[in-house]
Amino acid sequence: MPANYVPIFIFIAIIAVALPVTLLAAKLIRPDNPQKTKAMPYECGVDPIGDARARYTVRFYIIAILFVVFDVETIFLFPWAVQYKALGLFGLAEMLVFLAILIVGYVWVWKKGALEWI
Amino acid sequence: MAMPLHQFFTSTDYLLSLPMIMLALFGMGVLIIDLLLPPEWKRANAWTALVGLVFSAIAVYKVQIADRIAEAHGQAGSFVGFGGSLVADRFAIYFYYLFLAGAAIAILMSVKYLEIEREQHGEFYALVLFSVIGMMCMASGYDIVLLFVGLELMALSTYVLVGFLRRDQRSNEAALKYLLLGAFSSGIFAYGLSLFYGLAGSTNLGQIALTLEQHFLANPKDPVAILALLTTATGLLFKIAAVPFHQWAPDAYEGAPTSITGYMSVAVKAAGWALLLRIFLYMLYPLRPIYLPMIIFVSLATLTAGNLAALTQSNLKRLLAYSSIAHVGYMLLGLVAGNTNNASSTGIKGIMVYLLVYTFMNLGAFAVITSLRRRDIIGDEIDDIAGLMFKAPTEAILMLVFLLSLAGIPPLAGFWGKYFIFLSLIESGHYALATVAVLYAVLGLYYYMRIANAMFMRRAETAEPVSLSPGLRLALAITALGTVIIGIFPEVFLRAAAWSLSVPQASAVAGLLK
Fold this sequence. Notes:
By secondary structure, chain A is mainly alpha-helical. Chain A is about 70% helix and about 0% strand. By secondary structure, chain B is an all-alpha fold.
């Protein structure tokens, strides 16, 4: 039913008009005073040196991935903790299974030495 | 208000998920046991994994028994679990056995091979088990979310397995290509599924099919439905490596460890087919008039590109990769001939038989190629197999059996796969397609016989002997027996294929909608 998609096209049309108009209006109204310092990337008062795309050690990736894993774990645990009473014994059993699987992974990661920096 | 435990996790849920629970337990067990094993004992992981596969097979058998008992009581319906998202019907049980057999044979092939490559790690076997869990979800999922999660679980495990030879550049390259294209196709697939969810307002396959049926009757040319169909089908065809979405296959197959190449070409491909059949037969059948021309085009393109590209390959793994693309073309023809919403038609039965026989003959061929890997010899070129007859006559003759079976020569298993596909084409009146397919089967004979020619008519390039490890010996025996027995006594296996489709899907759908 193409008629159902008419609101989407209206939406697209509004965006196509509103976006340039806002940008243009902002450019005309705002004070314009460019400086070199203003254009610099922020680096805690130190002069930024070199390219941001330098090579760095692969260990950061491992840390990042492990962080994501345990982050997601917390996200899963949180709703369960909030609804602990309502979920009852089932929720507890389910979470223990979930944690058991994660602990296997945790032990594996630990023994493999992925948690050590060097 | 506290709900009792048995309302969330019923005994049926337990029974249906037991095969996967077994694999998960043993997979994690392998990971932990591997940490405790001294390096010279690493191959014990293979046995742990095999025991896990056996336990899982026993659990599948329990599901099958329960199905038989239900039938005896006159309740010929599928087992539905987890609020309708998991259906362990006969279709799923058939695929369960296929995946378990494929994984077991691949593990037998891997033990010695990984030692030669100096990559004998427990993670390999754990990943194989985890990938089988994903495949099982793909075969039994009745909910697009579960199907997608299963697909990703299988795919992620396979990406790592492809790149398992860390020191080999080809393996790394293959894994990266496979990962990028696989992630890309998964994205397209998920996009299609999300459109279907938008159309139907449900993630349940049966529910989506019903909505599509009404929707399609009301407006047969709805662009959203067609876009959803196209993207979903593209994702699925990517996974089974059909032309024009096949480019990843030869590279991934060539770089992967040889036993994993075998595993990918049978179990992973069978899982892709399980997913494709589940979606096309149970969800998309109302759109059949739209997708039929598309499938005909894809199957013809797949047959042409697969067979022609295989002619000129000099690398055995690449050659078998292209031949496996060609086999997908034959199986797609079965989908063309398969009836609208009648899953038990000859065409679909042909696909089931084809996947079964393909598991044995293709893994057998890869087992022979695996044995060519020795110290300092990579052994995947046609030159490496030259003169095999004079070094290892038994192996050469077994390879000939597998090759003839792949080509579809009558007394062997491969014949029955092609027979039912061609029969279904003729039954459904696609005479032109049947003729083309038969001609391509003749063409296929040429490149399989090129390998045979090298084995029997040429002199060996190196004097290095070929030795078989016990695991490889067992794998060869199983695959050779399977290829010959299915070829000579096909009755039991054909009945199994017919059985897998025997429960009308209506019963599963009807049960779910209440």
